[in-house]
């Protein structure tokens, strides 16, 4: 009996539809999980949950009620006391509402990332890019403490979360270089399992 020749991993079938994985023919062009896929999903989900919690803590506890600072600004602008007070309270409510809405969005995005939904990678990437920009803008709050209205503790929490987001964004970029332009570090074809 003749021995069948060994095929190299990544060999393409005659019809061009399949690649040899080393043990079986797998469809071409399908992205498979790599060794980075699950850790990246879990790390992103944990980061987004921490980001949601950090925003809620900073918004409700560390930054304190913003209404008093807003009231002062409105009074300095020449508004009457009653109008300045009601406008400051309304704006504070809007700011806290936006904080809660963004925390809920981060929570849902964390769930989607943990589940490995492909679109969540791209949305999380946008969030990470925005956090990277805020990492640099928050430095001015830390350096110029006298000119900043943000309390030091709130500025530190925001800066730490932004720097963690910047590190995670760097991991996303490295995954593009290593595994190709796909979500969650999933390379195409049969070579995915051989990482």
Oligomer: single chain
Shape: elongated
Number of helices, counting only DSSP H or I runs of 4 residues or more: 5
Query: Termini distance?
Result: 34 Å
Structure notes:
With 195 residues, the chain is mainly α. It has one domain. The protein has helices spanning 37-62, 67-76, 81-115, 118-143, 152-179; strands spanning 18-20, 25-27. A two-stranded antiparallel sheet has the order 1-2. A hairpin with a 4-residue loop joins strand 1 and strand 2 (25-27). Helix 1 (37-62) packs antiparallel against helix 5 (152-179) and helix 2 packs across helix 3 (81-115). The longest helix is centred in the middle third of the chain and has 35 residues, at 81-115. It is elongated and about 90 Å long. The two termini are 34 Å apart.
Features:
single chain, 195 residues, mainly alpha, two-stranded antiparallel ribbon, 5 helices, elongated
How do the strands and helices of this protein lay out in sequence?
Layout: E1 18-20, E2 25-27, H1 37-62, H2 67-76, H3 81-115, H4 118-143, H5 152-179
Helix pairs in contact: 1-3, 1-5, 2-3, 3-4, 4-5
Short description:
This protein has 195 residues and is mainly alpha-helical.
């Amino acid at each position: 009996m003749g021995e069948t020749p060994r095929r190299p991993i990544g060999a393409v079938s005659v019809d061009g539809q399949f690649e040899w994985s080393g043990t079986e023919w797998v469809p071409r062009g399908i992205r498979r999980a790599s060794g980075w896929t699950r850790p990246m999903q879990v790390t992103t989900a944990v980061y987004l949950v921490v980001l949601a919690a950090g925003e809620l803590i900073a918004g409700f506890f560390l930054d304190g009620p913003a209404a008093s600072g807003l009231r002062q600004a409105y009074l300095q602008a020449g508004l009457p006391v009653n109008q300045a007070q009601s406008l400051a309270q309304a704006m504070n409510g809007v700011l806290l509402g936006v904080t809660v809405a963004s925390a809920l969005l981060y929570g849902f995005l964390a769930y989607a990332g943990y589940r490995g939904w492909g679109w969540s990678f791209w949305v999380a990437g946008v969030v990470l890019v925005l956090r990277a920009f805020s990492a640099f803008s928050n430095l001015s709050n830390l350096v110029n403490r006298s000119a900043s209205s943000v309390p030091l503790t709130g500025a530190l929490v925001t800066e730490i979360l932004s720097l963690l987001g910047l590190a995670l964004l760097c991991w996303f970029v490295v995954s593009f270089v290593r595994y190709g332009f796909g979500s969650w570090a999933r390379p195409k074809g049969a070579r995915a399992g051989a990482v």
